[in-house]
Specification:
Length: 330
């Protein structure tokens, strides 16, 4: 069996801060197969962004990565490389970042320089990764802007990101991320800032582009309802740990972890014209005061006294590929 396209193994990331050491990602493992979508879901602060930014080595200087952690990528030429083992300024890392693994962010403004046009960004990205003439890079960029649904693409090509509406800017960012035809797209809450109609359009667009380009995707959201529309598999994160993972259908229809059940109840839905939403009770603990044992035990209604606060539960396969880490399933 060939190795997965991307394999994150035992990823641990801590941050040194003035207040103390924060564990943002705690022994996380997951795999991504070619052409597939993995959803990552969890409340704010669960480590979704930090874990995926590590894949393109976009971590701040105060980050410490675990010694046993590995992020193995199968490159286009079939070679395997541990991204965490690459030197930070190396040409191999530059080739991978933006060329084979691209990322789009919740706040598109952050990805564009206000001093450069949309077109300049795209042409530069393309020329960094491929030997193409400026004319060819321009042609391909405009074609992609058209493909993502931007009217008057040639005109937009010459504009700045701040001249575009939120939805158009998000489309432009998708075009920019895809211009190099990456094998993996990481989409970090790409629709959160958008209204529901545009959100649905962007999800549809990502699904189409993914199919056309045969790329794999990691799609991050705090909303399991959005994940259900786009990802075949899902990993549920809480305070830096994956607490449940598996085929999205199984996780949603037969959630095993009390935290996952809480997330499902928190999915916004329209019931008889009324918006019903039950948030998970209790506060998310401060990252400086991580609970012992199962990180969720302080908010869990099904907590087993003497057990859940004492020991971190081991992952257990409860159905094919459906894995849960919870003492209720020991
Ligand atoms: N550069 C940093 N320095 C210190 N702590 C950080 C840094 N970046 C992230 N953290 C902390 O790491 C933890 C995980 O953060 P992360 O941004 O990955 O959460 P998230 O799941 O993406 O949340 P959200 O849904 O709000 O985007 C949080 O406690 C956060 O405060
Ligand atoms: Mg985030």
């Amino acid at each position: 069996m060939s190795p997965p396209l991307l394999e994150v193994r035992d990823l641990t990331i801590e941050f040194m801060t003035d207040e103390g050491r924060i564990t943002a990602v705690d022994h996380v493992s997951f795999a991504l197969e070619r052409g597939q979508t993995l959803g990552i879901v969890g409340e704010s602060g669960s480590g979704k962004s930090v874990a995926t930014r590590a894949v393109i080595r976009l971590l701040t200087d105060n980050a410490l990565v675990g010694e046993r952690s590995a992020i193995n990528l199968t490159r286009r030429d079939g070679r395997q490389v541990d991204i965490l083992g690459l030197a930070s300024g190396s040409s191999e890392l530059r080739q991978i970042r933006g060329g084979e693994v691209s990322m789009i962010f919740q706040e598109p403004m952050a990805s564009f320089s206000p001093l450069r046009t949309i077109g300049t960004h795209m042409v530069e990205a393309l020329q960094l990764h491929e030997r193409v003439s400026k004319a060819e890079a321009t042609r391909r960029s405009i074609e992609l802007l058209e493909r993502v649904g931007i009217a008057d693409a040639a005109g937009r090509f010459r504009q700045y990101s701040f001249e575009l509406s939120g939805g158009m800017r998000q489309r432009a960012m998708i075009a920019m991320a895809l211009v190099t035809r990456p094998s993996i797209l990481i989409a970090d809450e790409p629709t959160t800032a958008l209204d529901v109609t545009i959100q649905a359009q962007i999800l549809q667009l990502l699904r189409e582009l993914q199919e056309e380009m045969g790329m794999a995707m990691i799609f991050i959201s705090h909303d399991l309802g959005v994940i259900a529309q786009i990802a075949r598999n899902v990993a549920v994160m809480y305070l830096g740990r994956v607490v449940e993972e598996g085929p999205t259908r199984d996780v949603i229809f037969e959630p095993r972890h009390p935290y996952t059940r809480g997330l499902i109840q928190a999915i916004p839905r329209l019931d008889a014209g009324q918006r019903r939403l039950t948030p998970i009770g209790g506060d998310i603990p401060s990252p400086l005061a991580r609970p012992s044992g199962c990180p969720f035990h302080t908010r869990c209604g099904e907590r087993l006294e003497g057990r859940c606060e004492a020991r971190v539960p081991d992952p257990r396969e409860v159905a094919p590929s459906h894995v849960v880490s919870c003492h209720l399933h020991d």
